[in-house]
Design goal:
- This protein is α/β, with parallel strands linked by helices.
- The protein folds into 2 domains: 173 residues, Rossmann fold, CATH 3.40.50; 186 residues, Dihydrodipicolinate Reductase, domain 2 (2-Layer Sandwich), CATH 3.30.360.10.
- The strands form 3 sheets. It has a 9-stranded mixed sheet with strand order 15-14-13-12-8-11-10-9-17. Strands 4-3-2-5-6-7 form a 6-stranded parallel sheet, with helices on both faces. A two-stranded antiparallel ribbon has the order 1-16.
- The chain is globular and about 60 Å long.
């Protein structure tokens, strides 16, 4: 997975902001999406290909099939045959989309090259839902193949992969393809209204943002199965390895950091300092079970982030903002959205809130149909890099600048990804010892 030849030369925070300026300078229009008017309307049937048949992939496939009248699930791909079959059976089990599942056995693609064979079929739309370590390679290949892409978060686990994502996003614009992200909270109507008020000055200038994602473990280690190779052990326990998951600050808590970026107008932080460690997650793998990060912004604002995956502890999943004219709390666990201060407000609509996962697919397919193509590339990459930057700071114990994070040469994936590859469990990162590459 050598991605070095694909990176742009020495990207910087200022260039990142400059290339993202259309989304930022244009202000907030609900929904807050980066629409691009490239191609004409698409009125024909659309064939969907699913790459990654786990829980999020099967959920996304069902939502995609519900998003448009004239779509079918045409091809599926996964590295494991059993995962492919379990996922396909789950989709077929949804009565409202069952008739749209038209996958023939010759379009079941299994193996490390399954994504390539799926992309070589005549699918029109691709859902990327494998472990995140594969996301940059799959995204680049999907755009090169001329497919519209729904890309689950996070978009990468390291900076070389992140740079590949940025290049693929630019290529999608040139090819007139929609590229939508899986940052689902940006499709949640109450949060759209709340963040629109924040960006319109509802609490004045933001001085501090405190974000949390404290929860229990997401995936426990399966350890070993009969005849598993080193690679299979790691793939089936992908959450436990940073080269596949990015660690939980990147894989899960990135949702909270995306909301922090949203509130800051998608302007990236200048630097990050962090702590983190591994207290109870000791059975296998090498990722941490807690992080605490302080992000500094050029305008003097601070973003404080805390995330934890430990059982038996208090849980919290929220964004708390303090501004010069008031405060705002967005509590994801309790679905509360409250502004206090000069402009008091709370979300109190009695209209039913459409499932945000369905909204993101509805808008994605509507963009393909209308020709008003979505490209979330810049801000989805920025939110991902914000999480990667926090992990880098915690792993090394050093203050990491945005430009250092963006230009890092560290590729987390092993040099050889093959069933016969001898893979060891990487050492647990040690602050003050682990170096930034």
């Amino acid at each position: 997975m050598n991605q070095e030849s694909n990176r742009p030369e020495n990207p910087s925070r200022r260039n990142f902001i400059k290339t993202s300026s259309v989304a930022v300078a244009g202000g907030l229009l609900l929904p807050r999406l980066s629409f691009q008017s490239f191609g004409g309307a698409n009125t024909g049937p659309l064939k969907i290909g699913l790459i990654g048949c786990g829980g999020r992939g099967t959920g996304a496939a069902g939502q995609a099939l519900n998003a448009d009248k004239d779509v079918i699930l045409y091809a599926v791909a996964d590295v494991f045959q059993d995962r492919l079959q379990i996922g396909l059976d789950a989709i077929r089990g949804e009565a409202n989309v069952r008739e749209k599942v038209k996958v023939q056995p010759d379009h079941y693609f299994v193996g490390l090259d399954a994504y390539q064979r799926l992309l070589a079929s005549d699918v029109d739309v691709v859902i990327l839902a494998t472990p995140p370590g594969f996301r940059p390679t799959h995204l680049k290949a999907a755009i090169a193949a001329g497919k519209h892409v729904f890309c689950e978060k996070p978009m990468a686990v390291d900076a070389p992969g992140l740079r590949m994502v940025l290049e693929a996003a630019e290529e999608a614009k040139k090819k007139q393809l929609s590229l939508a992200s899986g940052f689902c909270w940006r499709s949640h109507y109450p949060k759209r209204e709340t963040f629109s008020r924040i960006l319109d000055g509802g609490i004045g200038k933001i001085q501090t943002i405190y974000t949390t994602y404290n929860t229990g473990p997401v995936k426990e280690a399966t350890l070993h199965g009969p005849g598993w190779s080193d690679l299979e052990k790691q793939l089936r326990n992908w959450y436990q390895f940073a080269w596949l998951s990015g660690d939980h600050i990147v894989e899960q808590a990135v949702h909270s950091l995306d909301m922090m970026s949203w509130a800051m107008g998608d302007v990236p932080p200048v630097r990050a300092t962090a702590v983190g460690g591994r207290q109870v997650r000791t059975s296998w793998g090498h990722i941490y079970d807690h992080f605490g990060v302080t992000y500094e912004y050029e305008n003097g604002a601070r973003g404080l982030h805390q995330c934890r995956q430990q059982s038996g502890c208090s849980n919290d999943y929220a964004v708390h903002m303090a501004g010069t004219k008031g405060n705002c709390t967005v509590d994801c666990s309790r679905n509360q959205h409250v502004i206090t201060g000069d402009n008091p407000w709370h979300y109190a609509s009695k209209a039913p809130v459409i499932d945000m996962y369905q909204v993101e697919h509805n808008e994605f397919f509507a963009s393909i149909r209308s020709g008003n193509l979505i490209n979330h590339g810049k801000w989805m990459a920025q939110s991902t890099l914000t999480a990667i930057m926090g992990r880098m700071a915690a792993y090394t114990g050093q203050t990491i600048t945005w430009d250092q994070a963006l230009n890092s040469q560290e590729t987390l994936a092993p040099e050889k990804i093959a069933w016969d590859a001898a893979l060891t469990v990487p050492p647990v990162p040690m602050p003050g010892v682990t170096k930034l590459v």
